[in-house]
Amino acid sequence: MEHLKDLFLLDSAYTHLNHGSFGACPKPIFEDYQKWQLRLEREPVDFFVNQGNIQLQKSKAALGAYIGADPDDIVLTTNPTYAINIIAKSLDLNPGDEVLSTNHEYGALERTWDYYCEKSGAKFIQQEIPIPLKSKEEFIEAFWKGYSENTKAIFISQITSMSATIFPAAEICKRAKELGLLTIVDGAHVPGHIPLDLKELQADIYTGACHKWMLTPKGCSFLYATKEVQNNFDPVIISWGYKADVPGKSLFLDYHQLQGTRDYSAFLTIPAAIDFLEKYDWTSVSAQCKQLILENYQDLCDIFGTQPVCPVTSEFLGQICSIPVPIEHPNELKEILFNRYKIEIPVFKLNGQVYLRLSTQAYVSQKDIDYLKHALIEIKETTNLLKQP
């Protein structure tokens, strides 16, 4: 994959091992982004009134084909947090109702659900999923222990941000459907990372980021909702789509897609991003990146005498993994890695345990991971930062 590094705009002075946070946009896709920005600035009125909307529909059509969804069931958003705010704000929750989730969810979305559940008197149930996770069956059993007669909806990540684990979202959605529950899935890390077919997954609501593993510029994500539920949600921002002069195909599209003046050039790069992934056979590239995770995860844990958070198999792992680290203050390790070794990698605390999360993308090689190992061993041997295992 070494030849693919030059396709990215990343500063070569640093070792970039944090693709999962914000992604990295290759040069050809970024050039397409700039093309749309320039077109907007040259003729803003025509762009917003006519041409931009035409191109927006083309982007949604390309995305729909890529993720197995009807384009009319998709609205493009800046990020998954915005998308879930649309849902949580209008979900018909009453005092005593429960939204069942896990204790592995993304922090911004935990806060979103906490906020709206507190306002309605409902409860956000973060069911404990034990680490290390031993099997899919263990996960499913642990998750449904949080179910009660008050459960109204489930909210679950398909790939978790912090524990970096693939959860059995399809099995959870299937069981939730049988129980008559609304299913809401956070797939921020999924598109371009592992196969996604929303028709097959059968979630009622799904959000994903295109600017992570699909490689678009920042601020390009989507919200999907089935036709049965999509008109139940108020717009976060009241704008021209409310009581539209020329109504569109659904309130879902009118309410959440028309929001006045904003630069949505990033949305228009989706076709170019998909073309890029096809041109460079990104399925094979991704497979090589996943293999790096499988080959190095245990070794990284061994440095600290810890264990992987899940079985080291493709059932649970993609292009990211989280290594438990025996320290108290994650920022100290992060700053040493960044300032002394010029390694960009996140270190954070989840449920009382500190983790270091490695992401592999086309610009990451075994040499880069070996350099990370060297840095971690050196820090362990020369500082008092790490507790003895």
Key words describing this protein structure:
three-stranded antiparallel sheet; 41% helix; 389 residues; 2 domains; globular; alpha/beta; Aspartate Aminotransferase, domain 1; single chain; 15% strand; Aspartate Aminotransferase, domain 2
Structure explained in plain terms:
The structure is a single chain. The protein is of the alpha/beta class. It has two domains: 29-276, Type I PLP-dependent aspartate aminotransferase-like (Major domain) (Aspartate Aminotransferase, domain 2); 281-382, Alpha-Beta Complex (Aspartate Aminotransferase, domain 1). Helix content is 41%, strand content 15%. It contains 13 helices and twelve strands. It has helices at residues 19-22, 27-42, 44-67, 80-90, 107-120, 136-144, 169-178, 198-201, 251-257, 270-279, 282-304, 330-339, 366-382, and strands at 15-16, 74-77, 98-102, 123-127, 151-157, 182-187, 205-209, 221-225, 320-325, 343-344, 347-350, 353-359. Strands 2-8-7-6-5-3-4 form a seven-stranded mixed sheet, with helices on both faces. Helix 2 (27-42) runs antiparallel to helix 3 and helix 4 packs parallel to helix 5. The mean pLDDT is 96.
Nutshell version of this structure?
The chain has 13 helices and twelve strands. By secondary structure, the chain is of the alpha/beta class.
